[in-house]
Design goal:
The complex is a heterodimer. Chain A has eleven helices and no strands. Chain A is mostly helical. Chain B has a two-stranded antiparallel ribbon. Chain B has a two-stranded antiparallel sheet with strand order 3-4. Classes of the chains: A mainly alpha, B mainly alpha.
């Protein structure tokens, strides 16, 4: 069995299982976490606050908009770019079709793929250099933040290395890094991809129950 | 009719028709010089007869087909080609025109093929690829030598502990974004340029091919990001980077690198020179890079050849100078990196290295400006 077969076969399935089970465990744990009962009579809807809290945080407060525009542009550029690449890059669509789902959907043309990759890379680099060049951000960042950023960057970079699809070694490198990324994901802050809904929602629900717009 | 005979009857006459020796050329006196066919020996019938004889395993008697004009006379016992026993290189040499070894004479009036490709290859292989690596290496050696001579440039008065704002978060992010993309491009570019002489002999063709394929994809992908970074950097750092008469003093005293105090504003001449070098050479790299990434936009191949040459030279220059920038901005000078990590510098550092700027920002009007912009 070649290295490519291992990283696309058994190792990928193990990593995917750890990713799914680990993420479910973490999210389930947060949902099941016991909270102190709020005995005050509600003056608003907690459910509406949950939804409002989630939506409201997609845009910065007006007072901070100017100061945080780099974070905003970098954040949206990277995250949206990453999701588009993950779901609509032609090699990913083919992989999902043949190895997992058994069906496919239209993939991005190559020019659009390149454009989205440029945006995603720019966003990720901006987010990380902001992390190191802003004293407060640097202080509150720990190894997990840097490892998560760099691992994601290396996954994306190795994916670009393999764009020509001419060498199995490059594809294997990309898949190996994907496997590591999947294994690391549930144990790291990369989990924010799922938990952001709960954290925003919790704040929103708390305020919403008190009749305050979060 | 066998395929072999079909080839002989169709392709060989075609080649002869294209041969410039057969085509007429206007001589200086206005007379028409004719090709081989008129010399009576290298005719189609003659060659076909010789081919037929060769196929039968026979040899014709010497002298059946004469050598072309200018070729040494000899027996016709050599391998047979479209022109009998005449070397095909004679045809290509006449067809090509120009002189592949003379850079000043790349084209001739009656050329059919350009020779610039050969010149480009020679320039790339014999000069750029051979010497390019020595420039960054030389820069490193110079920096080590300077480090040994001067050591780390300290803040003479020590750190004051009071900070002065120097770069905004946008400027810092623009700087590090450009730096990150530049490093990626430099590494992949050096791999592409020098991989064949430096890596291939060690790792072999397969590993080299993998590395170059990866480097090429990454280089092409990050290239456009460098263009965006360059524009961002230009906009954010242009203020303060225009030349000023005080820079003359800095130039004459070599920036105080070998001791002594030199006055400077927000940016000294060295920083300004680096800024403009990066912007101008970066623009050249961007344009030539785009030319190589979208080659179909250029009808003339020579533009692409020129682009590869300018791209390689410009990149080597920038990489070499960037090493000096990295050195002086980090380990070479105490307190310098604070400006790009914290956005602030120590007051004594500002006073010693950018005294005019220090006076400006600490003056009453300077403080008012700072407060207004905060």
């Amino acid at each position: 069995m070649s290295f490519l077969q291992i990283v696309e076969g058994p190792l990928f399935w193990v990593a995917a299982a750890v990713f799914v089970l680990g993420a479910l465990w973490r999210v389930g744990g947060l949902i099941a976490m016991k909270r102190r009962r709020d005995i005050a009579p509600p003056t608003g809807s907690a459910a509406a606050g949950f939804i409002r809290g989630n939506l409201r945080h997609f845009l910065p407060r007006a007072a901070f908009a100017r100061r945080t525009w780099i974070h905003l542009v970098g954040g949206y550029g990277f995250h949206l770019g990453l999701f588009v690449l993950l779901l609509f890059a032609a090699p990913h669509v083919a992989f999902l079709d043949k190895r997992i789902l058994g069906f496919s959907w239209p993939a991005l043309p190559r020019w659009a793929f390149i454009l989205v990759a440029e945006i995603a890379f720019a966003g990720l680099i901006i987010l990380w250099v902001r992390r190191i060049s802003e004293p407060v951000m640097r202080l509150i960042s720990d190894a997990d933040d840097h490892v998560g950023s760099w691992l994601t960057f290396l996954v994306m970079l190795s994916g670009c290395f393999a764009l020509q699809q001419s060498h199995d070694a490059l594809r294997a490198t990309h898949m190996f890094l994907v496997d590591i990324w999947l294994l690391y994901f549930p144990f790291s802050r990369l989990m924010h991809a799922f938990t952001f809904v709960l954290s925003r929602g919790h704040t929103g629900a708390t305020y919403g129950r008190r009749g305050i717009t979060p | 009719m066998s395929l072999r005979w079909f080839f002989i009857l169709l392709v060989i006459p075609g080649l002869l028709t294209l041969t410039p020796l057969r085509a007429t050329a206007q001589s200086a006196g206005g007379t028409v010089a004719t090709g081989v066919s008129e010399r009576g020996k290298q005719t189609l019938e003659d060659i076909l007869a010789r081919q037929k004889a060769a196929l039968r395993g026979l040899k014709l008697a010497p002298g059946t087909a004469a050598a072309p004009a200018g070729a040494p006379a000899g027996p016709d016992t050599g391998p047979l080609g479209p022109r009998g026993n005449q070397s095909l290189s004679d045809i290509w040499n006449r067809w090509r025109g120009g002189d592949p070894l003379n850079l000043l004479k790349p084209y001739s009036a009656d050329q059919v093929m350009t020779t610039s490709g050969e010149q480009w290859r020679l320039l790339r292989v014999e000069y750029i690829r051979r010497y390019a690596g020595w420039f960054p290496l030389g820069a490193l050696v110079l920096l080590v030598a300077f480090w040994m001579y001067r050591g780390r440039i300290r803040i003479r008065a020590g750190r004051a502990g009071r900070k002065i704002a120097r770069f905004t978060i946008t400027q810092r992010v623009a700087h590090w974004f450009t730096a990150g993309v530049f490093i990626l491009l430099a590494l992949t570019g050096l791999l592409i340029l020098l991989g064949r002489p430096l890596i291939l002999p060690w790792l072999g063709h397969d590993a080299h091919s993998v590395l170059i394929s990866a480097a090429m994809q990454a280089h092409n992908l990050f290239g456009p990001l460098f263009i965006a970074a360059l524009i961002w950097l230009f906009i954010k750092f242009l203020p303060g980077n225009l030349f000023h008469p005080v820079d003359l003093g800095w130039i004459l005293r070599l920036g105080g690198l070998f001791g002594g105090h030199v006055s400077a504003g927000r940016f000294n001449f060295g920083e300004k020179a680096w800024f403009w070098l990066l912007i101008i050479v970066g623009a050249v790299l961007s344009i030539t890079g785009l030319a190589m990434e979208f080659p179909w936009l250029f009808a003339d191949l020579r533009w692409l050849q020129l682009s590869t040459v300018l791209h390689a030279i410009g990149a080597i220059v920038l990489i070499s100078v960037a090493l000096g920038h990295i050195y002086i901005g980090s380990i070479g000078m105490e307190g310098a990196i604070d400006s790009m990590l914290e956005g602030e510098v120590d007051e004594n550092w500002a006073r010693e290295h950018h005294d005019l700027w220090y006076q400006e920002v600490t003056s009453t009007t300077g403080k008012e400006k700072e407060e207004a912009s905060a």
